[in-house]
Structure prediction request, 174 residues.
Amino acid sequence: KVCCIAGATSRQLFICDVATRQVIGLSVDSEFFTLCGSRVFFTQNHRLVGIDTSKQPADPGYRSVATAVEGRLITGLAGAEDGNILVVSTSNGTLWGLSLATLAFRCSKAIPDGTANGPGTAKGRLNAPVIAGHIAYCSSRSGAVAAVDTAGGRIIGLFFEQTAVITPVLVQAG
Prediction:
């Protein structure tokens, strides 16, 4: 599957099945979305939604809606099938862990603000997370870079940059 969001004012998430040449278009609220296995996660009507593209819309389990996270606050998403986890970053500094299949709450952690000042700084605003193994990595516009255990939400590493971190982190294996 190939996915993209198009439209400057009226956003549409397009899910393209290259093998069957079928395209699904869904109205979405923001440019934040991710794929994990057969599932696609996005915001719609200010709520976090997941659909399982291996199922038909009438099938049980096709669509899940998160109740733990306010959709308007979402700044990024990352999923990992081996940990059955969807990690959600927000503009209020909370990193959430949700079940992939049901979007049920698993854990959350407030990421401390960094000490950055100046252009691009935004206290509490997290950049999109990245998952490597069972660790979620996330940076913030306040200069914090955190490593969080996805099993329980415990911070296992924390670094503070003196300037705003404006991109998601990248993790190199090895």
